[in-house]
Protein 1
Amino acid sequence: MSARTLPLVFVNLGGEMLYILDQRLRAPIASEDTSDKGVWSERDRRRVLNDVTATLFGPSFVDELLKPQQLYSHRTLKTVLTRLAHASIMRLNPASMDRLYELTTMAVKHQVLLCPRPKDLLLVSYNHIDAVRDFVRDSPAVLNQVDQAHRRIIEVPAGSGIYSRADFRSAPSWSLLPQVYSSMSEGELQLLRQTLLVFFQDMHVRVSLFLKSKIQNPGNGRFALPTSGPVPHGTEVPGLIRTFDRRGREVRRSEFPPGGSYSRPAGGGSFGLHGARGTLLGTNTYAANRPEETLASRASAQTGDAPNPLAKEELNLLARLMGSMGAQDGAGAEGAFRISMFSPDDEEQEAGTSKEAEAFEVISIQATQVGCRWSSHLLSITRTKQNALMLKAAFVPQPVPSLFCILHRQRDMLVFCSAQDEHVASELAQIAGQFSGAEEQAENPCGNKGDDLLAMMDDL
Amino acid sequence: MYHKEKSIQIKNSASALYNNLSVLRIAPRRLTYFTVVHANVVNMVSASWDGLNYSHRQLQSKEPNVATSTSLIMQAAFCVLPSRELLVITSQKGIQMYESDGSIMVYWHALDTPETPSEVNYVPAQAVFARGISAVWENYICVGVSSGSILVFDVPSKGSNITLSEVLEEHKESITDIASECSGSQQCIADLVSADDGGNLCVWKSGEEFQLLNKIPGFDMSCSSVKLWKGTVVAGYGTGQIRLYEAVTGILHAEVNAHARWIYSLDIAPFSGLLLSAAEDSLVRVWHLTVSQETNSVEVAHLHNECVTDTQICGARFCDGDGYAFAVTGYDLSEIIRYTQT
């Protein structure tokens, strides 16, 4: 369906994540790292928020998001959000990350569902961006990044014109389309909203904050939809039937019971860089609440993450997104605080880490000899039926000093990551393993494939 | 006027798509088929009239003989032609046509995707999909495309020799819905209407070459559902309004401030003139239309409301030509709710 969902998905999910991190890091937390127990300092909390924001709104990450693409599985999204959450000195255990993901997705599902009109989805996104701006107001560099990203997402038309359908068709790449959302019609925005609703379908995790504020029904986990209140902009209050004659003159008016109590629309919201947004959806509802309110309980089955046939494209997207987030703090493990963000419960017996992807190996290839054109490419090599190696290249604007090759046996696929650290490469390899379907026989020792690849690289 | 009956449980919940419910009444076998779209799957339920037997089937959207690549489905609808009935499913990849019980796929049409440039993983910025399905006259099935084109398929009375007969290029925005009347026996001046994301309506006369009779301009608001009855176009919009136009002239007969949110589905019971409207505001409304073709006047009267609590409704259809019963689906709801006249 819509290929324009990613920027809004990440702004909203990322924003909700920042709200929760902000709230949680204010509370006294038991840290596993006993060297520094107790409360997070104000400085550390701000550092985490700044680091996560800087990664979320980093120009290369935003570049990747703005490319038209399909919205993939929850697994992919969760992986990227985990990486985002770990962009700083904080480390969440898997159970906490699961909870965090559930909370953020339920919050965004609520916002998307309750948007009075599809265009209000943008206002909700801007609410998130406004709040994030406030979090990082003391860091001019990060604040500037947020502003830049916001501009690219809104792109208030400044003489650059609206692209016609013919332009869209002939544009060789996304880079010619700076304007994303400002030129979308209500119908296209509704398609985007419908795409998001498919993504959030069947998620009914109970969130105690929502239950308390009667936003969510405890019985079935559905969100409460009021049949009263102001109608959206552009809509008339229901209840009137007007009949006209052939000349267009009104000949009759009659009324009918609307079955709800509606009122005229409230004042509109601003779609610019600043201004009151006119809706509470997307604002920080956690700020006023105590941390205990944000518990999520697993009352329903998780959305199925069966291996899907799009896995290869997903994997490529994942590699690009992870790569564009830049290297993690090298000292990651040492200076990091490992925390359990939400109180543990019975479900924490789950296998937090996935099965090790036994079918992969990591080969480190130093590609220092090759030209910069090569070093900035993300490659995928697939073995065709004739056992030939087929090379396809995709452009990723990221110069890297070295390449890591991940041999994924079960998918018979090799992915070169332009990732700057081994940590990301092995993470990706793990995920590649997760995407695999039925087990296949072990292949030749990977040395052969590695040699083939080196030979191919020499030919370029 | 109507009371709630026992709901039919379906295997998956309904997705938030326009016109997400299709009903086919099979009188000789005392069965009714229902189809509801969930992401990349169509859930089909066959319900016996005595309420005792239900059987389920699931259809996926994919090219035949290709194991991979399912895609999101936009719509599933039954097409009733004089000689046969087909189930048409439209998705991001193309159009599938099945026998009405979903047992055999008889036709697959792949959508043209824009030329892919050299860049790997290229995804067109504009979404590509098919949406809007209707049977027309004796042997045509029309399907809309996101580019605004309407594909006209010629369907033989038996077999799978379905061919693309014509492509109608009039709309500039994505097609949302297509509707027809007078299939088979009756002769009408206009027998097809198509609607798009800009609210524009095109009125056609079917034939070996379809003829455009009229274009009714929209007002920049998506028309998500459209119906044609006794020469009157009934259109539901994202603003929650329903408008009734005289098809051939475009004269506005009536305007109803019907719903507080986006309308997702309209249906008409042709023998009684009952109109059903459903929207994201959780309400289903029943109206009565009186169209007098002699005096060229149209009257709309409101009859009944049903509220499906906490549900954004995405499909509503009468189960019979008199409007004695109707069925409703909602986003995230795994059931088909039924209502019958008291």
Protein 2
Amino acid sequence: MDAGLTQAESRELDQRLQKRQVKEFMNVIGNLVDNCFNACVDDFTSKALSGREGGCISRCVIKSMTTQTRLGERFAELNAAMTAEMQNKGR
Amino acid sequence: MSFLGFGRPQPSSAEKIAAVENELKMVAEMHSRMIKVCTSKCVDKTYREGELAKGEAVCLDRCAAKFFEAHQKIFEQIQTETQNRGGGPAF
């Protein structure tokens, strides 16, 4: 990914990447909320979360974060392997 | 996945920055999709436990690997099909 950027271009890129990271973070939170709500909440006879639903949500959050960490590691490994393979093919 | 510099005129600043940003965007999107898909396929949706079970963890690892392989296979096939159908620019 070495595009030979100048210092100014590098700074611009860094700024853009920071904005993108914030956006990505919000996206992750959003997906987590959707996922845990869909999985845990289905009783609308009350407007307050039941104990069962609250517990489910807690477990869902913990499990989701563990899952994302694990998948993040696998992704980094697989992405690095794929990039290396593509660079070898390109030669 | 970088197509810069194969005998074309020098890309402008904006193009260089956009290229890097787009590449990272693609990677981030793939990451996000992988998490959604593999969570859906591997993680017990009742969230009875907050801990990732051993079976779920192994499933996630395998799902990540298969996701990458499927992604590559599909990508290559789309390129081939597009060319065979005499169609537009390759990716």
